[in-house]
Amino acid sequence: MSDDSLPSPAGTRTAAVIPAAGRGVRLGPGAPKALRALGGTPMLIHAVRALAASRAVSLVVVVAPPDGAAEVRSLLDAHALPERTDFLVVPGGETRQESVRLGLDALPEGHDIVLVHDAARPLVPVDTVDAVIEAVRDGALAVVPALPLADTVKEVGAAPAPGAPEPVVATPERARLRAVQTPQGFDRQTLVRAHRTVTDEVTDDAGMVEKLGLGVVVVPGHEEAFKVTRPLDLVLAEAVLTRRRLNDGF
Ligand code: C5P
C-alpha cells in the first residue's frame, strides 16, 4: 500500500462506495463478475485495496449481490486489508443506480466526500483516486476521471429492418469527447440529493449531478483504470498484474 498518498486533513473525511452487485453477463457464464479471480485474488478485493490504498479514504462500503452479502463479508475477512480503513458490506439492488443508493444509505455521518467506484475497475492506481479526492476538496461538487478517445465515435439510428446496417446520424468531434472512468468523487450532500431527485436511468453517477444542473469536472484518468467487461479485458488485467509484479521485483 502506498504511504505517500494524499493524507486526510482534519475536518474532511472520505468514504468510498463500491457497487459490486452486477452479474457481469458480458463476461460469460460463472460467478458474479466482482467475485471472479484476477491473479488468484477476487476482482472485488483488488478494487477494495485500490481505494483503501488512499490514505484519505477512511471507510469503504461494498455493495454486494443481493443474496451474497455474507459471502462478500467473509471474503473481506479472508484477505489482508489496511487497518486504518473501516469496511461495511450491504446488499445491492436490481440496477447499478439502486445499488449505489443503498450504499449511500449505509454511510454513517461524518464523511463529507464520497467516491463511487466500480468493482469492475480493479486496477485503478492510487494517484488517480487521490487526484479525484483533491479536486473535490478544492471545491468541485462532482469529479470524474477520464481519458481522450482512441476511436472515432459515430451516433447511429435504428436499422430500417432487423439485421440491416444501422445508419450513421452524426460524428461528434473526437477531440471534445472523453471516456469516463471511476472512482467518481462527490460532495456527499450533492450526490445524496442527486440520488433522491433523479429517477432517469443513467450509466454513471456524475450524470445524475448533471441532471440537477450542477457542474461536473474532469481530471486525467489512467489507462489501467479500465473496466473489466468482456473476456479480453480479463487477459489485459492479468497482463497488467504480471507487469506490476515484475516491476515490484526490481
Ligand atoms: O454493468 P456495469 O459494468 O456497468 O456495472 C458497473 C458496476 O456496477 C459493477 O461493479 C457492477 O457490479 C455494479 N452493479 C451493481 N448493481 C447492479 C448492477 C451493476 O452494483 N444491479
Automatic annotation (TrEMBL):
SUPFAM superfamilies: Nucleotide-diphospho-sugar transferases. Keywords: Isoprene biosynthesis, Nucleotidyltransferase, Transferase. Its EC number is 2.7.7.60. GO terms for molecular function: 2-C-methyl-D-erythritol 4-phosphate cytidylyltransferase activity. The record marks 26, 33 as: Transition state stabilizer. It catalyses: 2-C-methyl-D-erythritol 4-phosphate + CTP + H(+) = 4-CDP-2-C-methyl-D-erythritol + diphosphate. GO terms for biological process: isopentenyl diphosphate biosynthetic process, methylerythritol 4-phosphate pathway. CDD domains: CDP-ME_synthetase. The keyword Transferase applies. Pathway: Isoprenoid biosynthesis; isopentenyl diphosphate biosynthesis via DXP pathway; isopentenyl diphosphate from 1-deoxy-D-xylulose 5-phosphate: step 2/6. The keyword Transferase applies. It is an enzyme of class 2 (transferase). It comes from the Bacteria. The record marks 174, 227 as: Positions MEP for the nucleophilic attack. PANTHER family: 2-C-METHYL-D-ERYTHRITOL 4-PHOSPHATE CYTIDYLYLTRANSFERASE, CHLOROPLASTIC. Catalyzes the formation of 4-diphosphocytidyl-2-C-methyl-D-erythritol from CTP and 2-C-methyl-D-erythritol 4-phosphate (MEP). Belongs to the IspD/TarI cytidylyltransferase family. IspD subfamily. This is 2-C-methyl-D-erythritol 4-phosphate cytidylyltransferase. It comes from Streptomyces doudnae. The lineage of its organism: Bacteria, Bacillati, Actinomycetota, Actinomycetes, Kitasatosporales.
